[in-house]
Amino acid sequence: MDDSRRPPVVPIPHPDSAGRAEVFRALEASLGSSFSSDPIIPDPNPLIIVISGPSGVGKDAVIKRLREVREDLHFVVTATSRPKREGEVDGKDYYFMSKEEFLSMIEKNELLEYAMVYGDYKGVPKQQIRDYMEKGYDVVLRVDIQGAAYLRKILRDNAVFVFLVAESEEALVKRLIGRKTETVEALLMRVASAKEELKHVKDFDYVVVNKEGELEGSVKLMESIIDAEKAKVQQRRAVV
Ligand SMILES: Nc1ncnc2c1ncn2[C@@H]1O[C@H](COP(=O)(O)OP(=O)(O)OP(=O)(O)O)[C@@H](O)[C@H]1O
Description:
The chain is built from eight helices and nine strands. The protein has helices at about 20-30, 60-70, 100-105, 125-135, 145-155, 170-180, 185-195, 215-230; strands spanning about 50, 75, 80, 95, 110-115, 120-125, 140, 160-165, 205-210. It is an enzyme of class 2 (transferase).
């Protein structure tokens, strides 16, 4: 006879006629052990979430909004040697630094990933990721497609890779024009590479279509992805 069918050694009062505490104690006494208040499942591991996608698709816009609605995420501030755009804040939007400073970080192996993007360096500082993951934060990285491909190689399935796309090429190009931050030459270069970049979607875990005027929907989907990842039985284990 298995344990669950063995008659209780002490009478267990029915919950209709006894208080919850009394029934609880009687159940413990019958089983001969106390019920643990420890979590049945340990806290999920902190995640590394890599967000990528063609230029102008809305990565910054989605991340900015995600930041507002979710406090338990840390958005890794990328280091860059590109000049600051109007309104950008050092240490918040990017760590702006000279090419020399950037090269010194490369030499000291302080970057998880880096690349030359349209003539300027951009890279992901390792220490920042370690610090926040140690504190239990999920960490979000924003990288270009080549950066994502490289991170996939080194982090494999230990990070979550999300590809952001627009609903069509037309919408993507219009969005880039509307941003008014590019020279005509840069615009042409970004539009040309966007077509090529779309082929990389297959290397990602999730794709989020950031439709015109539907930024909130994209942010909600991002949140759902994070929540689902947190509920996975086989947790990812990122180490940088
Ligand atoms: N769902 C959306 N609907 C309408 N406009 C959007 C949407 N998402 C982003 N935008 C706008 O599109 C422009 C480009 O977005 P954003 O700068 O976030 O793109 P990005 O992917 O970060 O670009 P880059 O890689 O060049 O930095 C911005 O002006 C932004 O406000």
